[in-house]
Amino acid sequence: MGNVEWLDSVEERAWRGFRRMWIHLDAQLARDLAASSELSMADYAVLSTLTEVDDERWRVTELAAHMEWSQSRLSHHLARMQDRDLVKRETDPQDARAAVVTLTNRGREAITEAATEHVAAVRKRFISVATREELRTLADLADRVVDRLSIPT
Amino acid sequence: MGNVEWLDSVEERAWRGFRRMWIHLDAQLARDLAASSELSMADYAVLSTLTEVDDERWRVTELAAHMEWSQSRLSHHLARMQDRDLVKRETDPQDARAAVVTLTNRGREAITEAATEHVAAVRKRFISVATREELRTLADLADRVVDRLSIPT
DNA sequence: CACATTTGTATGATGCGTCATCTACTTCTG
DNA sequence: CAGAAGTAGATGACGCATCATACAAATGTG
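Above: the input entities. Below: the structure tokens describing the complete assembly.
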């Protein structure tokens, strides 16, 4: 399994490259999104997740879980998005503790307009640079890495 | 080149997987590092970069550029690390505008102790899950993506 | 059915990253 | 060599993420 203590050149190049790629991609996509909309990446994540289900209604906790955000982070972010009239929160009639998040018209317009360009940016910055084989390799690796992280060990 | 507007299943799996992998890995490594040291990932990045040159002296701007951090971020972070006695800043005798950053003894101890376990964590969480071929593929892809980002277009 | 426990969400404090700006020093120009 | 322009770094204000906690509603228990 190689030396346990350090990384050899292949390993180091992969690890550094991976981080570098993430940091640059993330920053560039944020700039692309900002240039073509009024949304941050976080806004985009919230809005696009909301559109993923047919009735576009999510309980805060479920939305947070699905997005892999902390409940607190989402709650704060929803508060800000609500101020900007992008989302609404209503009390769940089934359970008065719970809040149901929905898109406002403004939110729906925002995500509709932003989505096309964001996807185009992802394609331009990342997808189109990779081969199909590379994409498959990356997806497989990612699944394995994430699976393994969920095992306590 | 496929449909320009949306992502097909291979593309989507790769993109989502990549982001997911990054988020989980980063969080887990931060927890690992916190468990085995008093350092944050940012602290680690600063300290380990400092040890990369023989005399362990860096001008703030050069350090920032090498780390791909903004000068401001580094300056703020150095201020906090200085309060914790991990680094020192001295005025450069050659150029009184400039500051030279160096490790304190405490900083050197901290990074020395933390490094072994951090590298072990990277290996455990990521490297050991990938094959050599995957690592090479990832590194190549990362280089290409990053290179392409630097072209304005 | 009172009371303890659990669950769903919000909120306040704190620390970090970014942007715009400030200061001090250095370099360039005539 | 005076003044303008440029450069190195620090700083303050602001927005966002996290942690701990608060609160209210729901559920379980005797």
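Note for the figure: Residues 59-61, 71-72, 75-76, 79, 89, 92, 95-99 of chain B lie near DNA strand D (CB under 10 Å from a C1').
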